[in-house]
């Protein structure tokens, strides 16, 4: 997407605004499939939590992806988008048995991550195929909030509890058709990922009915020029070779599965915000925009750095700005960042806004959530309307006081 296209989108749909480039999503998906082309059976399940707009889900379906879901609501979004139930994998954490029973009725692939539910589910529904989420006790991820495979993590069944898993499976005679792990997001060290994979391969030898091994995801994307990222091509080469060898050694015809989310949509998204005020203090020049962490929380939550460009004045002299929002507490997108000279009413574009931006947005301070737009085949399409005051109060109930 070019700067003039982004400015036109703001002119048409207002600010703040999320804009997604379908061609970038498609190229990232093709990059994944090319990296693992040596494996006969590969399935990529798009992680819905990254960006759950139904039009984006339909694009993923067209590309050939399945869906990785973590709630019944995400499952139902996938079904509404036209996905076959068998192409949806459901990997919740700490949910009730009642929610798992809803998932069973919907006919999707269930992934269980604790011994208690595994035993209960196996006792009630031994014939329903189930995947088991293993915690390999491997620390991987760019931030403690997104590292989920370490020993203190709430996710998965400890690899050291394999004897307990085997006892439950033997007692209930349940059907284990998959085994799964997810070590965390923003993985840089391929060797760490491959080490965790060896733990999963060993665990896979304990089950005779396996149909797939799911290695999760967590691939890092670049957030700025020169930034490091997961070398998908190298990982694809090394893991494919190891996977093919494992299948031959154990005479298994398995599917290799991944659950990419951020990798597919992060770079496709840009978040556009208008500058309301330029405020000079004794030590800082603030650019106040018409947004806040209620629309893009990642810098405040994870300390992430999103490239910010002034697309209204791209050739202007660079100056240092702290870009802040309108929320009534510390609300910072960038501190002392070199940006082309910013004037009031200029439009700033924040990059890598496709993943975990709208999906983590809120109505904090009773602000409206922005519109979403998809740029596809040279045209913009509105895929979510901007909220209104009626949206804020539609579920509230006034009582006589």
From TrEMBL:
Gene3D superfamilies: Alanine racemase, Lyase, Ornithine Decarboxylase, Chain A, domain 1. One of its GO terms (molecular function) is pyridoxal phosphate binding. Pyridoxal 5'-phosphate binds at residues 218, 356. Its cofactor is pyridoxal 5'-phosphate. It comes from the Bacteria. PROSITE patterns: ODR_DC_2_1. The modification N6-(pyridoxal phosphate)lysine is found at residue 49. Substrate binds at residues 298, 302, 329, 356. GO terms for biological process: lysine biosynthetic process via diaminopimelate. Residues 24-266 form the Orn/DAP/Arg decarboxylase 2 N-terminal domain. It catalyses: meso-2,6-diaminopimelate + H(+) = L-lysine + CO2. Pathway: Amino-acid biosynthesis; L-lysine biosynthesis via DAP pathway; L-lysine from DL-2,6-diaminopimelate: step 1/1. The active site is at 328 (proton donor). Specifically catalyzes the decarboxylation of meso-diaminopimelate (meso-DAP) to L-lysine. PANTHER family: DIAMINOPIMELATE DECARBOXYLASE (PTHR43727), GROUP IV DECARBOXYLASE (PTHR43727:SF2). Belongs to the Orn/Lys/Arg decarboxylase class-II family. LysA subfamily. HAMAP family: LysA (MF_02120). Homodimer. This is Diaminopimelate decarboxylase. It comes from Patiriisocius marinistellae. The lineage of its organism: Bacteria, Pseudomonadati, Bacteroidota, Flavobacteriia, Flavobacteriales.
């Amino acid at each position: 997407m070019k700067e003039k296209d982004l400015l036109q989108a703001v002119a048409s749909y207002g600010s703040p605004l999320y804009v997604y480039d379908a061609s970038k999503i498609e190229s990232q998906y093709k990059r994944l499939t090319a990296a693992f082309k040596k494996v006969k059976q590969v399935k990529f399940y798009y992680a819905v939590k990254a960006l759950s707009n139904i039009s984006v889900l339909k694009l993923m379906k067209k590309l050939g992806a399945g869906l990785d879901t973590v709630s019944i609501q995400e499952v139902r979004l996938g079904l509404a988008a036209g996905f076959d139930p068998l192409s949806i994998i459901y990997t919740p954490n700490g949910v009730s048995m009642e929610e798992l029973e809803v998932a069973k009725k919907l006919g999707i692939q269930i992934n269980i991550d604790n011994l208690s539910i595994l035993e209960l589910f196996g006792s009630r529904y031994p014939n329903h195929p189930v995947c088991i989420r293993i915690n390999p006790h491997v620390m991987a991820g760019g931030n403690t909030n997104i590292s989920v495979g370490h020993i203190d993590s709430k996710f998965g069944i400890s690899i050291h509890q394999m004897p307990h898993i085997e006892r439950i499976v033997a007692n209930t005679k349940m059907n284990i058709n998959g085994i799964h792990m997810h070590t965390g997001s923003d993985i840089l060290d391929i060797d760490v990922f491959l080490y965790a994979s060896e733990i999963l391969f060993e665990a896979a030898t304990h089950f005779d009915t396996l149909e797939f091994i799911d290695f999760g995801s967590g691939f890092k994307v670049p957030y700025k020029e020169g930034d490091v990222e997961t070398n998908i091509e190298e990982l694809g080469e090394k893991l494919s070779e190891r996977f093919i060898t494992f299948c031959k050694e154990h005479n298994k015809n398995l599917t290799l599965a991944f659950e990419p989310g951020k990798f597919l949509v992060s770079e496709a998204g840009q978040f556009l915000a208008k500058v309301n005020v330029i405020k000079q203090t004794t030590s800082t020049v603030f650019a106040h925009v018409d947004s806040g962490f209620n629309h893009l929380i990642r810098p405040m939550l994870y300390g992430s750095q999103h490239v910010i460009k002034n697309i209204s004045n791209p050739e202007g002299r660079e100056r240092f700005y702290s870009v802040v929002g309108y929320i009534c507490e510390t609300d910072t997108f960038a501190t002392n960042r070199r940006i082309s000279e910013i004037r009031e009413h200029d439009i700033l574009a924040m990059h890598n806004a496709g993943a975990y931006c709208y999906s983590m947005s809120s109505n904090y301070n009773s602000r409206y959530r922005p519109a979403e737009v998809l740029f596809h085949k040279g045209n913009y399409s509105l895929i979510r309307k901007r909220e209104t005051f009626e949206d804020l109060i539609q579920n509230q109930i006034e009582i006589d006081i």
